[in-house]
Q: What sequence folds into this?
């Protein structure tokens, strides 16, 4: 018996030809065809189960190409149930698939003998008994199907695995053994609802008075709910739970979920190219040289400002209307409205894109006054925001605040159906800094490392707006039109976005990371801070703008 413990589940038993194949399969992206194949193998799978099984199908094929026999591949799969490879091991259905491909019952008997031995001795270090029980159920079902299940194995059998596997096993046994196995498994720490469902699925195979009494007892124990009501009704009608043909309704649902997910991923990947294209195409033309700089706009008379504002609203189309001229601590800003969203007309100017020496000095001085230096790790990432680059930005119409975050594929739809575009990174910093240099955040020059200040500024809304009438910078993860690149070397100096394929630049995101965990989330409030789009897989925010040519 002792030698049996090291024969199939010991790490030394793993064929070393398998290790690189399994590791490589971890990042494999399943195709639609292989997912459909996996949906026939698996019974009632989740989407994650389908994706995992596809990888194990590929592992099987590649190991066969390496020259491993079906029995050797089966041994690899059994070992993988207890050896972590950074992904889920093969399911019971996949193991059953491999048992069917291997010839003879020797490996199945070896697994069962191992479980008998394990039941008599302490669990060896590193052995995960739950996974061994799953492998044991498959091995015993295989032996039962071959008329070779030793009664000694019965007390080590767990019947909570795959329903077809359990049904196969029970159908090959005499009724008294079926009843004993089912009653033994009812003593486990299981919820009443799932156990009623499980018993109903086996009703046509084992429906003795003792099992009927056990079901009735579970019904009295279970909490209410629609699902339990349906199970209770089925129990009262003495009707078994249907056993579906493959692919099951759950498998088809999982396939549809994955198909929708792939479609969303493809749509999300279109966001960057669409943003770059829209930057060049979506502009309006208005004769307004007064908007070339903040100084010329400030020197413009009010009647002329109103005339320009009306011309801009007309150029934007019937969806836009002029609200009026408003002051936000600087020259009057023309405020427009579109579908209850406010926009501001921003004069052109120049901005230092990146993290200046003056801003660095403020952070270092603040860091010296605090004891939690890890909150200032942004000081180790300054090259991401350098060299400081002077960029000229043209006038534009910009949304006062960003839209609420949405999934990336929805962001693509919103951008596609809008007449507006996304700002370049340089334009975003110009808008955030309000035409001023060395502003750590849109709200001013102070270090934003206080949660209390974060919450109070967020609550101010439009009352926290900068000189351009804009607010909310740094709170939501706002995507820009630029391709992300580490640092600002080669940044266009005319305000246009950096070209290329790949993830875009995202600015902000501190509100999405709230409540903060003391990991420097406030860094995202800094006007100069930037992250790649890949860091925001589930949520992106759009701040719409349009150039005035």
A:
């Amino acid at each position: 018996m002792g030698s049996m413990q090291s024969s199939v589940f010991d790490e030394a038993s793993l064929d070393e030809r398998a290790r690189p194949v399994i590791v490589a399969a971890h990042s494999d992206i399943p195709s639609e065809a292989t997912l459909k194949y996996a949906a026939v193998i698996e019974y009632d799978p989740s989407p994650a189960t389908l994706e995992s099984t596809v990888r194990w199908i590929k592992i099987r094929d590649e190991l066969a190409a390496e020259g491993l026999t079906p029995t050797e591949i089966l041994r690899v799969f059994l070992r993988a149930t207890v050896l972590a490879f950074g992904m889920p091991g093969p399911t019971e259905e996949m193991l059953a698939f491999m048992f069917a491909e291997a010839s003879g019952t020797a490996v199945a008997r070896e697994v069962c003998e191992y479980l008998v031995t394990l039941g008599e001795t302490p669990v060896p270090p590193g052995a995960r008994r739950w996974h061994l029980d799953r492998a044991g159920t498959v091995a015993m079902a295989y032996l039962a199907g071959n008329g070779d299940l030793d009664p000694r194995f019965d007390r080590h059998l767990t019947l909570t695995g795959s329903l077809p596997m359990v049904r196969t096993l029970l159908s090959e046994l005499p009724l008294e053994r079926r009843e004993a196995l089912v009653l033994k498994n009812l003593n486990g720490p299981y919820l009443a609802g799932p156990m009623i469902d499980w018993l109903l699925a086996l009703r046509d195979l084992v429906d003795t008075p003792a099992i009927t009494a056990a079901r009735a007892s579970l019904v009295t124990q279970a909490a209410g709910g629609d699902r339990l009501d349906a199970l209770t009704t089925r129990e009262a009608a003495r009707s078994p739970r249907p056993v579906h043909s493959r692919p099951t309704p759950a498998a088809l649902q999982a396939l549809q979920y994955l198909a929708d997910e792939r479609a969303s991923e493809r749509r999300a990947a279109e966001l960057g190219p669409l943003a770059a294209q829209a930057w060049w195409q979506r502009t309006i033309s208005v004769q307004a040289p007064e908007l070339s700089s903040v100084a010329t706009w400030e020197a413009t008379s009010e009647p002329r400002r109103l005339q320009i504002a009306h011309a801009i609203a007309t150029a934007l189309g019937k969806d836009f209307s002029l609200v009026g001229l408003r002051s936000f601590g600087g020259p009057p800003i023309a405020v427009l409205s579109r579908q209850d969203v406010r926009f501001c007309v921003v004069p052109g100017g120049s901005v230092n894109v990146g993290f200046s020496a003056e801003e660095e000095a403020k952070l270092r001085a603040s860091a010296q006054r605090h004891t939690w230096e890890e909150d200032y790790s942004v000081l180790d990432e300054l090259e991401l925001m350098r060299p400081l680059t002077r960029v000229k930005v043209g006038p534009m119409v910009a949304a006062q605040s960003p839209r609420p975050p949405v999934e990336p594929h929805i962001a693509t739809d919103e951008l596609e159906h809008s007449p507006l575009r996304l700002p370049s990174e340089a334009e975003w910093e110009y808008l955030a800094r309000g035409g001023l240099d060395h502003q750590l955040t849109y709200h001013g020059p102070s270090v934003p490392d206080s949660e209390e200040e974060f919450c109070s500024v967020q609550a101010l809304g439009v009352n926290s707006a900068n000189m351009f009438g804009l607010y909310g910078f740094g709170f939501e993860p706002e995507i820009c039109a630029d391709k992300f690149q580490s640092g600002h070397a080669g940044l266009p100096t005319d305000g246009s976005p950096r070209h290329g394929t790949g993830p875009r630049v995202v600015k902000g995101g501190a509100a999405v990371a709230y409540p903060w965990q003391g990991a420097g989330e406030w860094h995202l409030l800094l006007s100069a801070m930037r992250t790649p789009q890949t860091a925001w897989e589930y949520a992106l925010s759009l701040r719409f703008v349009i150039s005035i040519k």
